[in-house]
Design goal:
elongated; mainly alpha
Length: 141
């Protein structure tokens, strides 16, 4: 059951990253997509405090990732090689999400407000996946 959940979370993360890439690709290539993205950006800025929400989401993902890595390092003797690889991938994806959130803006990347939640969702799913792996590792003596 745990392996099925891990595969599902990994595939969902890949789907979010592919969706973010597709949005960015078509925003650069198609004029109609650029118009729609600019329209959606203006709507989002008018409807909600986007700056507060993006930093709150980034802080939430960062805190969960730090707790997961701390638990992962605490159970040093009980971890397996695939879990180490996924923890490294989680750390890289979380760092990429934080860098994208802090360093990029709507002015530099037109589809920023549409791509950022997708990258954040992929990072959050990887954190949840690793959190489950840390919580369910067996103590073998």
């Amino acid at each position: 059951m745990k392996k099925i959940l891990f595969v599902f979370l990994d595939l969902l993360s890949i789907a979010f990253l592919a969706g973010g890439y597709a949005i960015q690709y078509f925003t650069k290539r198609k004029l109609g997509m650029v118009r729609w993205v600019v329209f959606k950006n203006k709507q989002l800025q008018e409807q909600m405090p986007v700056d507060v929400l993006k930093y709150a989401a980034a802080a939430f993902v960062l805190i969960l990732a730090v707790f997961t890595l701390a638990g992962f390092l605490k159970k040093k003797a009980h971890r397996k090689k695939p879990d180490v690889v996924m923890a490294i991938f989680m750390a890289a994806l979380t760092a990429g999400y934080l860098g994208f959130t802090i360093l990029a803006s709507e002015n530099s990347i037109r589809s920023y407000y549409l791509v950022m939640p997708m990258i954040g969702a992929a990072a959050l799913l990887q954190v949840i996946r690793n959190m489950i792996a840390v919580r369910t590792c067996k103590y073998e003596k």
